[in-house]
Amino acid sequence: MHIQDALGDWSARPGPLYARLSAALAAAIDRGDIPPGTALPPERSLATRLAIGRSTVMHAYARLREAGILETRQGSGSWVTGARRTGTAESPRESLAVAALRNPAALVDLATAALPAHRRLREAVAALGVADAGTAAVLDTPGYHPAGLPALRAALAERLTAQGLPTDAGQVLVTTGDQQALSLLAAHALPDGEPAVVETPTSPGILDVLHGLSVPVRGAPPVTGGGDDLPALVDRIRPGLVYLVPTLGPLGRILGPTDRKRLATALAGRDALVVDDVSQAGLAFEQAPPPLAAYAEPGNLVTVGSLSKLHWGGLRLGWVRGSASLVAALARAKARADLGTPVLDQVLATRLLGIEDEVRAERIAELRDRLAHATGVLTESLPEFRWTPPEGGLSLWLALPAGTATPFCEVAARFGVAVVPGGVLSSRGLTDDHVRVVYARPPEVFDEGVRRLAAAWARYRHAGDDQPVLL
């Protein structure tokens, strides 16, 4: 567990700041979230990450040493007592789920990029029952479909074919969310710890997967900014996996058809498995071009998608489109993990694909209205921040006028609003001069969130980059 995950909403505790921090660390150690022998971050590093003064961390560590919980040696750092010392297992990146849910009752969440269930999904749930012939037929089977419900695989294949990527059902694997799709593909492509290449910034999901596999990760410029150097980088480091988001990545841009063809042709036939994540394609304001695999034949171009972004975050259904042999291999690995994605969810998803055009039209109309509202609110409340209007999706990529996003987001959390520091969307924290803000919230929620964000920014800038920020 990352140390900021383990600390939770530590600054909301009573008492002096150093006492709050030491109490949160002691509680995390007692729970086992920070195991015995774990090396804690250096004082300066933790202070920067938490947007507090170094002396606060020094006093907190001193309290833990007095209690016999922490041991420190000059030149060797500090670690939790009670077991053989190990290297720290924490990463500089914080889990976004934990960051967004530290105190859900008091937090205005502008970090989680997901929508509530659409009206049509609610209607479909209400209609779902054994009286439906299709559902009844599924319930008459044992319910084990490791590669996915045949009807859903066929519907996804038909959908992809209509979008310009000819596909048959045997080329589609249904997964429990796109995160499982990425996990299966990464484990398949990187069995011996080969390096991976991702864009900077990129999806936090793929970084979590690659961090879990402990493989080297190299960053590349966003392909929506040109991506002309990507083939040369692939030739130089020979990665096992290349993960790309040419359709609505963090920057909110979409790679055009001509550039897609050039990129697909350049990467086709390489040893690397090239993963094209189209999970947000349904949220494009204008119809997005076909996936990269539509522009080149070789089987190393793989497409990953999801129903969660368009329909509902709680509908944990994703899919992989690749060669039949790759899908069969991934299905075997998935069967070992969970025997298959829940079948009733897949029955519901099959219905939703039949009305996806209607759902998308309603979503896009709503998102356009909310983007226009958010633009006005941000321009008035945070005029120094800069961003490029997105071509779809749920988020804005805001450039900070000064300072660093990670400590600023810590301050924002103390003011009761969650946003995503850009550093967690980079393999090396190189985009920590930006924050990702979800604009697709009801206007009254967004307004309150920006009010708190503006107050946090005023406090952060008043304190200065290297000074503690107290409430």
Descriptive notes:
The chain is of the alpha/beta class and 471 residues long. It has three domains: 3-80, Winged helix-like DNA-binding domain superfamily/Winged helix DNA-binding domain (Arc Repressor Mutant, subunit A, Orthogonal Bundle); 96-113 and 358-463, Alpha-Beta Complex (Aspartate Aminotransferase, domain 1); 119-354, Type I PLP-dependent aspartate aminotransferase-like (Major domain) (Aspartate Aminotransferase, domain 2). Helices cover 43% and strands 12% of the residues. The chain has 17 helices and 14 strands. It has helices at 3-7, 17-31, 43-50, 54-66, 96-100, 119-127, 133-139, 150-162, 177-189, 204-213, 230-237, 257-267, 324-338, 343-354, 356-381, 405-414, 443-463, and strands at residues 70-73, 77-80, 108-109, 172-175, 196-199, 217-220, 241-244, 273-277, 301-306, 318-321, 395-399, 417-418, 420-421, 434-438. The strands form four sheets. The chain has a seven-stranded mixed β-sheet, with helices on both faces. Strands 11-14-13 form a three-stranded antiparallel β-sheet. Helix 3 packs across helix 4, helix 9 (177-189) packs across helix 10 and helix 16 crosses helix 17 (443-463). The longest helix has 26 residues, at 356-381. It starts with a helix and ends in an 8-residue tail after the last helix. Residues 15-83 form the HTH gntR-type domain. Keywords: Aminotransferase, Antibiotic biosynthesis, DNA-binding, Pyridoxal phosphate, Transcription, Transcription regulation, Transferase. InterPro entries: Aminotransferase_I/II_large, HTH_trans_reg/aminotransferase, PyrdxlP-dep_Trfase, PyrdxlP-dep_Trfase_major, PyrdxlP-dep_Trfase_small, Tscrpt_reg_HTH_GntR, WH-like_DNA-bd_sf, WH_DNA-bd_sf.
